[in-house]
Specification:
Number of strands: 33
Structural class: mainly beta
Helix content: under 10%
CATH architecture: 7 Propeller
Shape: globular
CATH superfamily: YVTN repeat-like/Quinoprotein amine dehydrogenase
CATH class: Mainly Beta
Largest sheet: 6 strands, antiparallel
Oligomer: single chain
CATH topology: Methylamine Dehydrogenase, Chain H
Number of domains: 1
Distance between the termini: 33 Å
Mean pLDDT: 88
Strand content: over 45%
C-alpha cells in the first residue's frame, strides 16, 4: 500500500455511530491549495498549504451493505434511493438512505457488474463484465432485459446515454460501443487499443461522448453521429486517465490515477490544466462535479475523499473512518455525493449543503 498523507497534512476526524449502523463523521482538515502560478498546458500545478478561509466542511455517512458484496458503482434513484452494483456477488442493490435497509436483485449466473446509471426511463442500466452484456432492470418489477454484446468479452466498464437515446459503453479490453433504442448493439475497436474506462455525455458542451482510457493514458472524443473516437492527450504522459466528468460550463474533469492528479480539458478551447493532489502518494480514482461545480475525487493513497474548488484552486481532504475504503466511483444529485466503498462493503454519502 502507498503511504498516507505526510504529517503536515494529517487530518483529525471524529466519529460517532447513529441509527441503523450508519456512521456519521465530521472531519477537521488542514486544506491545501494549488499554487497561484499561471495556468499551464504542460505541467501540473503543485498543491501548497492554503492560508485563506476554510470552506464549510461536509458531513459524511457510511451505510453498511452485505458482507462480501464488493460494491463498485452507485447511481441515485429517482425515488430518493440509491442503486449500486455488487460486483463480487453478481447483483444489483438498492439502498434506502432513510432506513439503511437494502435489497438485492440477482443478475444471472456468471454476473460481475461494474457500472450502473439511471437512464432517461428512470430505470437502472448495468454494464456487466461477467455477462458481457448491458442489463436493464425495471425499477418497479425487477424484470431484467439483457443486451448481449457480439464478439469477445470486452471487459465492460461504464456507460452514458446521449441526447438521441443511445447508451454508450466502454470496454477495458480495447472497445467502445452503443446500444440503440431498438436494442441493437454495436461494438467498435478503440483507436489505441486497451484502456477505455470512464465515459460521459458532454451535455453542457458539444453534446458528444468522451471517455477516459486508463491503460492508454488519454481521453477520447466520440462523434455520436459518426461513432468515431479521436484520442486527446493530456499534458502529463502516462498519467492513467481513469474517470471523467463534465461541469456546468462544458469543461471535462479527469482523474489521473497514475499521476495522482486532476486534469481539466475545455473542448471549446482545447486547453488543459492539471493539479497535483496534496499528500505524499495521491492516487486519484474517481471524479465527480457536483451541482455547485465543486470537483470531488477519491484518493486511494490517502484513504480519503478530496474536495477541489476550481475558483480558489483549494483542496480539502476528508479521511475515511477506517483503512482501505477503496471508493471506486462517485455520482450524485443536488446536495449529495455518493460513493461505493468496495474495501469496506459500504456506501458513502457526502452531504454538500
Amino acid at each position: 500500500m502507498r503511504s498516507a498523507f505526510a504529517a503536515a497534512l494529517a487530518l483529525l476526524a471524529a466519529c460517532q455511530p447513529i441509527d441503523s449502523g450508519v456512521v456519521v463523521r465530521t472531519a477537521t482538515p488542514t486544506p491545501s491549495a494549488a499554487a497561484s502560478s499561471p495556468a499551464s498546458a504542460t505541467a501540473a500545478v503543485a498543491p501548497s498549504v492554503n492560508t485563506g478561509p476554510v470552506p464549510p466542511l461536509p458531513q459524511m455517512k457510511e451505510f453498511p451493505v452485505g458482507a462480501g458484496q464488493g460494491p463498485h458503482d452507485v447511481a441515485p434513484a429517482v425515488d430518493g434511493g440509491v442503486w449500486y452494483t455488487a460486483q463480487r456477488t453478481g447483483e444489483l442493490g438498492y439502498l434506502d438512505p432513510k432506513t439503511g435497509a437494502y435489497r438485492m436483485i440477482k443478475l444471472g449466473s456468471g454476473s460481475a457488474p461494474h457500472g450502473v446509471i439511471v437512464g432517461p426511463d428512470g430505470n437502472p442500466w448495468v454494464t456487466d463484465g461477467g455477462l458481457n452484456a448491458i442489463v436493464r432492470v425495471d425499477a418497479k418489477t425487477n424484470e431484467l432485459t439483457r443486451y448481449p454484446l457480439p464478439g469477445p468479452n470486452v471487459n465492460l466498464n461504464t456507460a452514458a446515454f446521449d441526447r438521441f437515446g443511445l447508451l454508450w459503453f466502454t470496454g477495458q479490453s480495447g472497445y467502445y460501443g452503443y446500444v440503440r433504442p431498438d436494442g441493437q448493439v454495436r461494438v467498435l475497436p478503440a483507436p489505441r487499443g486497451a484502456g477505455p474506462y470512464g465515459v460521459i455525455n458532454a451535455s453542457h458542451g458539444d453534446g458528444n461522448i468522451y471517455y477516459a482510457s486508463l491503460a492508454g493514458s488519454h481521453i477520447a472524443f466520440v462523434d455520436i453521429k459518426e461513432a468515431v473516437a479521436t484520442p486527446i492527450d493530456p499534458p502529463t504522459k502516462n498519467q492513467g486517465a481513469r474517470r471523467i466528468w463534465e461541469d456546468s460550463k462544458g469543461s471535462l474533469w479527469v482523474s489521473e490515477w497514475d499521476a495522482g492528479q486532476v486534469g481539466r480539458y475545455t473542448p471549446s478551447t482545447k486547453q488543459w490544466k492539471e493539479w497535483k493532489l496534496p499528500g505524499a502518494n495521491p492516487m486519484a480514482y474517481a471524479v465527480y462535479v457536483d451541482d455547485q461545480d465543486i470537483v470531488w475525487l477519491t484518493d486511494w493513497g490517502a484513504n480519503a475523499m478530496v474536495r477541489f474548488d476550481p475558483r480558489t484552486e483549494m483542496f480539502t481532504s476528508l479521511p475515511h473512518s477506517a483503512p482501505n475504503a477503496a471508493v471506486r466511483q462517485l455520482l450524485g444529485r443536488p446536495g449529495e455525493v455518493w460513493g461505493a466503498m468496495s474495501g469496506q462493503d459500504k456506501l458513502l454519502l457526502v452531504r454538500t449543503r
